[in-house]
Amino acid sequence: MRQQPVGPAFLWTIRFLAASAGGVSGYLLYQSLTGASVAGCGPGSGCSQVLSSRWASFFNVPVSAGGLAVYLSILIGSFLVPDRNTWEVQRFGWAWLLGAAALELAAAGWFIGVQAIDLKAWCPWCLSAHAAGGAAAIMVLLRAPISNRFDPDQFHTSIRPGPAVQAVMGGVLAATVLAAGQLVYIPSGLGISQELLVAQDGPQVAPAPAPAPAS
Q1: What are phi and psi of 185, to 5 degrees?
Q2: Which pLDDT belongs to residue 142?
Q3: How far apart are CA 81 and CA 75, in angstroms?
Q4: In whole angstroms, what is the distance from residue 150 CA to residue 157 CA?
């Protein structure tokens, strides 16, 4: 069955979703770098717990920076696949989009799992970015023109199965490196569980040593 070519409506929808997710990530990155409070994330809220946890950074780099890069990659890739470009650019664009889409979905699954299983708290800002970015990623994966056959009507826009699989596996591998790095490296400072302990019980002060007996 011949796959329907992607049209302007499809591409502009992807761009809108990627730009929306990128805007949220950019906002969170700005707040993280400036130390400003995030709207709706007061002390003790689930949003505050998530954004102050060890999972909010990757080797002391805010994960929102990586999210912004991925969403910008999807946005840029959407301008490489239209028919006005050469077939080399279009195929590169689809490989680019497939890799970024796989990375977004795998990373979203990781961070949603962390919030549900480890933190048991939810960040609406993070979830909104994952929802928009994930929707764009699913659209890419479902509509990417992957074909191993020569079709004069699809030749310029199709990407071969081999490069498509490689692009997807590359995105999954990048997300795996992200998860492994977060598991191995614990940022300096208080973890989220320690922060909650201090907030609930007050700072823990070590008892003063007993005076040495007089000689």
Answers
A1: -100, 125
A2: 93
A3: 11
A4: 11
Structure tokens at 195: 């922060």
Query: Does the pLDDT value for residue 156 go beyond 80?
Result: no
User: Distance between CA atoms of 34 and 156, rounded to whole angstroms?
Assistant: 46
DSSP state of 149: S
User: Which pTM value belongs to this model?
Assistant: 0.81
Helix runs in 35-191, H state only? 46-51, 63-77, 87-113, 124-143, 161-184
The C-alpha angle with vertex 169 and arms to 168 and 170, in degrees rounded to 5, equals: 90
pLDDT over 70 at 28, yes or no: yes
Q: Which of 29-43, 132-146, 187-201 has the highest mean pLDDT?
A: 132-146
Helix, coil or strand: residue 58: strand
Measured between alpha carbons, how far is 196 from 44 in angstroms, rounded to an integer?
8
CB contact set of 38 (below 8 Å; sequence gap of 6+): 27, 28, 31, 47, 48, 51, 125
Q: In whole angstroms, how large is the CA radius of gyration of the chain?
A: 22
pLDDT at 190 over 50: no
